[in-house]
Design brief:
Chain lengths: 114, 110
């Protein structure tokens, strides 16, 4: 039981390049989330998927797209990377979308955009 | 979701209880209080959550005031491994409102 896994662990992009961050969970959770964490700050929600087949914007969605590929996998895409997107990206999952359901986090992807 | 306020940093002596406060004066009746911690740059780790009543698990205790406007996370016997950033968040039925604030950096000292 690996929990929440993320790939890659590290990535360096040039401005304008695109990439997809992958996330998978093996806990049969319904809800999945993407956060970003800038240095010295808390986590901010980018997008979330309350259940398979649905996705919604969080607090900071601009510059990102997501795909809930199936119940296990939730990917985050940067179409045209910018230096302001340099951050650590965390994926999380929970059994249910709302209150009463704790989130489990992956180890993060450290992205640098030059 | 309600906004939370936490002190930016706290120290605690090893072996003593660490009491981390959180204010959430605008909490709604259907919102839970959650606590997570983040060690170094790892993914946040769930600690405990509650609605009205005090809660205890193997990691910590959560004390919620009767008016639910504030809460305290208690680590009963802090160890050096408990040094981390602790986040208090309030979550309701909307999964899209799930932002973490800046948290409290707890430093456990020998």
């Amino acid at each position: 039981n690996a929990g929440v896994t993320q790939t890659p662990k590290f990535q360096v992009l040039k401005t304008g390049q695109s990439m997809t961050l992958q996330c998978a969970q093996d806990m049969n959770h319904n809800s999945m989330y993407w956060y970003r964490q800038d240095p010295g700050m808390g986590l901010r929600l980018i997008y979330y998927s309350a259940s398979e087949g649905t996705t919604d914007k969080g607090e900071v969605p601009n510059g990102y797209n997501v795909s809930r590929l199936n119940k296990r996998e939730f990917s985050l895409r940067l179409e045209s990377a910018a230096p302001s997107q340099t951050s650590v990206y965390f994926c999380a999952s929970s059994e249910a979308p709302g209150q009463g359901s704790e989130q489990y986090f992956g180890p993060g992807t450290r992205l640098t955009v030059t | 979701d309600a906004k939370t306020t936490q002190p930016p940093s706290m120290d605690c002596a090893e072996g003593r209880a660490a009491n981390l406060p959180c204010n959430h004066s605008t909490i709604s009746g259907n919102e839970y209080v959650y606590w997570y911690r983040q060690i170094h740059s790892q993914g946040p780790q769930y600690i405990i959550h509650g609605l009205k009543n005090n809660e205890t698990n193997e990691m910590a205790s959560l004390i919620i005031t009767e008016d639910r406007k504030s809460s305290t996370l208690i680590l009963p016997h802090a160890t050096l491994r408990d040094t981390a950033v602790y986040y208090c968040i309030v979550r309701g039925p909307n999964a899209g409102k799930s932002t973490f604030g800046d948290g409290t950096t707890l430093t456990v000292k020998p």
